[in-house]
Amino acid sequence: MAIENGKDESVVERVKVINKTNVYPSKKLGRRECPLITFDLPYVTFYYNQKLLLYKGGEFEEMVGKLKEGLGVILEDFFPLAGRLGKDEEGVLRVVCDDENAVVEVVEAVAEGVGVAELAEEESSDFLHEIVPYTGVMNLEGLHRPLLAVQFTKLKDGLAIGCAFNHAILDGSSTWHFMSSWAEICRGSTTISVPPFHDRTKARNTRVKLDLPESAAAFEKKSTTSDAVINSAPQLREKIFRFSGPTIEKIKSKANENLPNDSKPFSTFQSLGTHIWCAVTRARHLKPEDYTVFTVFADCRKRVDPPMPENYFGNLIQAIFTVTAAGALLSNPTEFGTKVLQNVIGLHDSKAINDRNNAWESDPKLFQYKDAGINCVAVGSSPRFPVYEVDFGWGKPERVRSGTNNKFDGMVYLYQGKDGGKSVDIEITLEAEAMKNLERDEEFVKV
């Protein structure tokens, strides 16, 4: 079988690009600037955050026309997405949006031999590389590229919308706020119901100059110690496990069944997080003395002082870490791990957030997405995000999933399940052998 640039040649040929264009805000914006603050800057050396939405039916040209028109309108409100990264006179990063560079890159493509059902399968394939833009593109490239790129791909029976957002300017909450607002305009509204809040200085009014690498390639080369490290990189698999509402309730009930009456109940996230953490630890066949880390990227909008509004547009998340020995996690009852998560999440208050920011500002470091910890389970996204409410006028998406950027052994994305209620889709990336073990783990998949 022929391989082209590490990809199956037959896959590459399945997608044909038919048009490339730029979408501009529908009205002149003048010049607007938006600072990058301490909550944004650590993500400069992550990769563009990719999302994929799949829709059935419809006329491709008509749908794309409506999407592009709506995109131009919504960029008036979400102007940072039409800008570029730039540096001020002191070398501090910011977003600059003016009428010369206000643009979103849009690609139109055809993959008529591929159906929605194939892309909605639990197991991810290399085909995702071809329908979601900016795979392997670091956020630092926003100095030279648009901060948002979109690809519309015509499928055999529907439409795929692949989006790549520069993670240095927004988090998951802001991503889905934008997507919902874009859909609202496409459905015919002249205004959006929840305008974004853009004043980032209300969250952190600091200026930090970073020692940026010359390019993303230079940073990646510096971060990789040797060719041996590259060649020994594990083979990864990505898979979605779909948990129904009753299954989620059962997991939560099990975590809470032995709690003392005066104890604070465990939340759904804490219970599900522990369920995943334990299962992945079992699947990795760790030694009892091996450490394992659980990381959650927590929304800080209500944790900072003063609290920020839900419609704050930008990054307002921080990684919360907890670590324990694999033997302690697996030999104790379920509530052991859940209590560890509950404690560390509860302690991440405004003081802890401020202390973290102060420490980083005094000694700024550029991180990679893989710096989440040893034997890590890192959870991003949230089932609270209304991903299945993104209706552009032709119904809800059939499936929502991530692209391939920012994924490593142990990365987990939680999405609202399509069935509604409390159902959750758990998108997990694991080393291939561990994934095989996880699939066989009845304690995980047959709760």
TrEMBL record:
A GO molecular function for this record?
acyltransferase activity
The cross-references to InterPro entries, in alphabetical order and at most eight, read: CAT-like_dom_sf (IPR023213), Sec_Metabolite_Acyltrans (IPR051283)
Per its UniProt entry, which superkingdom is the organism in? Answer: Eukaryota
Give the Pfam families listed for this entry. Answer: Transferase
Q: Which UniProt keywords apply?
A: Acyltransferase, Transferase
Per the record, the similarity remark reads: Belongs to the plant acyltransferase family.
The entry's protein name is Transferase
* Species, as recorded: Macleaya cordata
